[in-house]
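Feature request, filed as a ticket because there's no other form

It would be nice if the structure record came with a short human-readable summary line next to the tokens. Right now we just get the raw output. Example of a typical job, pasted below so the devs can see what we mean:
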Amino acid sequence: MQIAIVADAAAVAEYAAERIAGVIRARAESAAPAVLGVATGSSPLGTYAVLAARVRAGQLDVTGVSAFALDEYVGLDPAHPESYRSVIRRTVTEPLGLDPERVHVPDGAAADLEAACARYERLIREAGGVDLQLLGVGANGHIGFNEPTSSFASRTRVKTLAPQTRADNARFFDAPDSVPVHCVTQGLGTILEARQLLLVAQGEGKAEAVAQMIEGPLASVCPASALQLHPDAVVVIDQAAASQLRFSDYYEYVQDQLPEGSA
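Raw output as currently delivered:
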């Protein structure tokens, strides 16, 4: 796992956007447009904004790029402004100018959720897999909606949201009771199959989860610790999110000593 500690949230966004842009450009050169994994929540918003600015400026061509969202609420009308279908459209598809037909979100309104989960797994496989999966981390260590004790081998499935997750997301709804109890989420096993993982986190509120993810044991009580298993995982955090790391000085030293051409 590569740890990049940068000054602030703006620097996190710039760093992450540059890595994503690099994947998009590299895949374009191979005549096979990139397949991105996109996350919701507040952590990736700055990254999307930087990418969108580069697209508007003509610095990044996203023609043919596909995207797969991590998760969706169960039972929420897809047209609801806080459904992740709506959120991804507002924060990713429209600002970046992606083809909506190439942007996929799990179907939390399906009559047969198990079949919908299997279909989503199949869509990812048929797209050739995810080149880079962008991730955030919840205060309780969840990634996607894989709550503590999720299996590292799990696939796309229905999960029950933890009370803390519902409380954290209540700010997006009219009332705490309006937050759905269930979701459809890519599993940890699905996420780990992406060729690259890129996790972004900002602020002291994420510091404990970041420390457990990076320096804690590999354990299902911190689902994000699954990144320790991935051969190409990068964690980009600001100083506040790094505040509980024991070895932050070492991570910064490693970053300064990267061989020329590395990133």
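Something like this underneath would help us a lot:
The CA atoms of residues 45 and 91 lie 7 Å apart.
The longest strand covers residues 196-201.
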